[in-house]
Model the fold of this input.
Amino acid sequence: MNKTVSIHIQGFAFILEEQAYDQLRTYLNDLARVLQNEEGKEEILQDIELRIVELLQEKVTNQQVVQLEQIQQIIQLLGSPEAFGEEEPTTTGQTSNESTEPMAANKRFFRDPENPILGGVAGGVAAYFNIDVVFVRIFFVLFTMVFGSGIPIYILLWIITPIAKTASEKLQMKGRPVNVESIKTEFKEATERVEKNTKKWTQQFRTGSGMSERTNRFVNFIKKVLGSLMVLWGLAVLITLSVFILIDPKLIPAQINGEFTSLGELSALFFETSQLNQFIYLGVALIGYAVGLSSMLTGIRLLFTFEAKWLRGGYLAFSIAAVCGIILLIFVGVSTGKSFAIEGELSKEIGTYSGDSLRLDISTDLHLNGAANLNENTYHQGYRPSKNPDQGIILAHNGRIFISGIAVNYIASTDTLFHVKILKKANGGSYYKANLRAAHIDFPCELSMNQLTFASGFSYPAKDRMRDQEVELQIAVPAGKCVIWNGQVVFPYTSIEEPKSVSDRAYVYGDGEYSAW
Done:
């Protein structure tokens, strides 16, 4: 029966056999004695203890007792204390091998804290693959420019990758052996780098230096300029948001009831419910105010000095507000996207004609009846408007939305008759809702003898919201017969570029112009 001892190494608990404990304690005491004249002795011993913890965790579980053989293996991996002290330098090949040969620690991926521009990710990647960090940074830049995903990948690696804090972790990052000698060497190299950088900057900014004074003045000037610009920009964001959210001015060139419209009125024609409309306003307000106030806070911090805790507190509050705004916008986007998920389509054949040619008569105001008082009696002395009122983003009047543009599709007739069919399309959250919206579309179209009269646009109720409503006019043409518009044959139509290809599609614009393609 062996006696056990419970110990803590760098905050980690282990249970050791008494003989294993004595061996480990003797080893650490010998290390402390050998390193007593070394600069940074405490830091080196701390790194060695952390390395011992890593090796113990690899060899035992939380409940397993550490055996003497396992401690001896760890000591062999790290090397004997006498091999690294100035008192008893290494004299045999065996001792040297003890200190260096076992190290072969697997290379691990860490962020490099000594070679960072932002988070040390590029330095860590360079160390892991043993390449120059410049190539890694160029790769991130090119990847961002070509695919646009370099920055998200960098941020993700920054979040999930630990930083190499201890000498042991830095050695593993570089794939170098992790023993007493390598830890000593790493610590000395780090100390030399710090001293070199400190001397460099001390020399450049030493007291009384004209360069230091000029540089300080320049840096302060840049800080003041940036601070002022950020305060002004943040203030402009806040004022602009407040004007559009609280006052909601009619500045958008969308003709609703004969006037320009506001964002609130325009969004009401798009979002399914008033609640979603309010959510979109609230989400934009939270994000906009968070951005504006963060900019002002940063600018004020550059202009004046105050405790950093207020800066951190402000950033935390604004970040929470922005996240809430993003969540609201995502909710609105998903809810609105669902109302576009299903496409409905209704079709109806309005008539047939047996002649040799079908004439098209396109009216630019048939679908506008009731919009903006386009009655013939409104205009004096026989004058009529030559411009279509649909010249803004959208045209709405008396609870209806008016859309210009009709698609025309020609197909081969299966008999000797012209067949005219109307297709109405709309989207919705369900098949029923999509078809109901399509049924609400009003498209004036009439076939009388050899003349097809139709409007250059259509309308639908504003309560249906804008859900990709479309109208397509389908004309089946018998073999050897034609369609005429404005005295010209528009079907069959062949272009100069492709004389052997007959165009079977066309589009009628709001101004009544016909275009084959």
Summary: Confidence is low (pLDDT under 50) at residues 86-104, 207-211. The first helix runs from residue 18 to 34. The longest strand covers residues 342-353.
